[in-house]
Design a protein that fits this description.
Helix content is about 25%, strand content about 20%. It has about 100 residues and is an alpha+beta fold.
Length: about 100
């Protein structure tokens, strides 16, 4: 697996490419994400195709998960399904889709 990180702008954010759904379950995934958040202030995982279950597990590894009041997936109330938006010519998830 080759992980590529690319700053989104000079002010904030980094895009991460190369993760698959199961990569989010590795012991280092949350630590690496937290380090990127601390450095860049925002992280976008592009084309990770993460499953709801893996996303919930990864989110819990980062800290307490707050369950949305409405629109949640019946099996994973921690997630919310939505659409994607275009950002700089690449699809970016507005929420899990």
């Amino acid at each position: 697996m080759t992980i590529i990180t690319t700053p989104i702008s000079t002010a904030i954010g980094v895009a991460v490419a190369g993760y698959t759904s199961s990569d989010f379950l590795t012991p280092d995934a949350a630590r690496n994400c937290q380090a990127l958040l601390d450095r860049y202030g925002g992280v976008v995982y592009r084309e990770a195709h993460v499953t709801d279950a893996d996303l919930v597990a990864f989110s819990r590894a980062l800290g307490e998960v707050v369950v949305a009041g409405t629109g949640a997936h019946p099996d994973h109330p921690e997630t919310r399904h939505g659409s994607t938006r275009r950002c700089g010519g690449a699809a970016m998830a507005a929420s899990l889709c």
